[in-house]
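Is this the right way to post structure tokens for a design question? Let me know if I should format differently. Anyway, here goes:
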């Protein structure tokens, strides 16, 4: 029998093939969860699964573009047929950036970021919420990974900041609508976290950004994953609609 605060819970994690999502899968598995690892990149999702400790129920990898309702619906059907328990946890970590100054940003890159980060999060909340409601889960928890930039704005990230601010509004609405179905919905707002996404940021810009962080250091994906364990587990059973900042004080 698995032990840990997520023992026996089936957790869907989008963006599970890389960075924060991958670490969430690892930390959740250590806490006893069974993982449905979702990513647009099949081999990355499979690599995450193969690195997880195997319990009595096997973790599974799924390929889906979260911006496609066809992909999301097919994925949910597979998950329902392949596991003996219904999902009671979902984390939306899939996300992209296409940075540029507003004056230089083309419409295509604005739409793409909104499509993945905001519409994709909506589609997953809708599909997972429906599945949890139909299955009458007693302790559903959906966690949407937003960003501190959604609260603060950020030069060169108008599309990304708008998408992440949208995720906060979506989360509060889902929290209100899903509460009577025993499903909590919360957002996590990471600051600067060391992942492949931030590896693209030039070193001199990262160093300058560190001066804005009261704790004066970059965060680790484990820091975000630990916050997600809390929000996924019953330790946070009276918390819904909140935005938990994991940002070393950036944005306070
Ligand atoms: P990451 O390493 O790039 O991981 C994101 C994962 O999502 C990648 O595996 C990516 O696949 C996948 N993905 C992209 N588009 C997808 C789609 N349409 N459908 C399914 N999967 C898709 O980034 P990260 O740093 O871990 O970021 C994870 C989340 O945290 C994102 O929502 C990000 O906005 C948020 N966040 C990150 C930071 C930070 O400092 N790192 C700060 C605040 C918020 P590909 O690699 O193939 O594109």
């Amino acid at each position: 029998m698995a032990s840990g605060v997520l023992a026996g819970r089936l957790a869907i994690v989008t963006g599970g093939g890389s960075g924060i999502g991958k670490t969430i899968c690892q930390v959740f598995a250590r806490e006893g969860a069974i993982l449905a690892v979702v990513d647009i990149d099949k081999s990355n999702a499979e690599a995450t699964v193969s690195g997880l400790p195997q319990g009595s129920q096997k973790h599974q990898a799924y390929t889906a573009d979260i911006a496609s309702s066809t992909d999301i619906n097919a994925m949910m059907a597979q998950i329902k047929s392949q596991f003996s328990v219904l999902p009671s946890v979902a984390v939306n970590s899939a996300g992209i950036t296409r940075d540029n100054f507003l004056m230089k940003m083309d419409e295509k890159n604005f739409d793409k970021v909104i499509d993945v980060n905001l519409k994709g999060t909506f589609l997953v909340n809708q599909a997972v919420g429906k599945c949890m409601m139909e299955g009458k889960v007693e302790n559903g928890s959906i966690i949407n990974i937003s960003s501190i930039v959604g609260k603060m704005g950020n030069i060169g990230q108008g599309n990304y900041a708008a998408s992440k601010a949208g995720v906060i509004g979506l989360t509060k609405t889902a929290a209100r609508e899903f509460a009577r179905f025993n499903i909590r919905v919360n957002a996590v707002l990471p600051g600067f976290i060391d992942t492949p996404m931030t590896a693209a940021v030039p070193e001199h810009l990262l160093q300058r950004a560190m001066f804005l962080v009261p704790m004066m250091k970059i965060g680790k994906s484990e820091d975000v994953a630990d916050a997600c364990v809390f929000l996924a587990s019953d330790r946070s059973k009276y918390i819904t609609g909140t935005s938990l900042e994991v940002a070393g004080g950036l944005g306070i």
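Format looks fine. Someone answered above. Worth noting: The chain has one domain: 10-245. Strands lie at 10-14, 34-39, 60-63, 87-92, 140-145, 183-190, 243-246.
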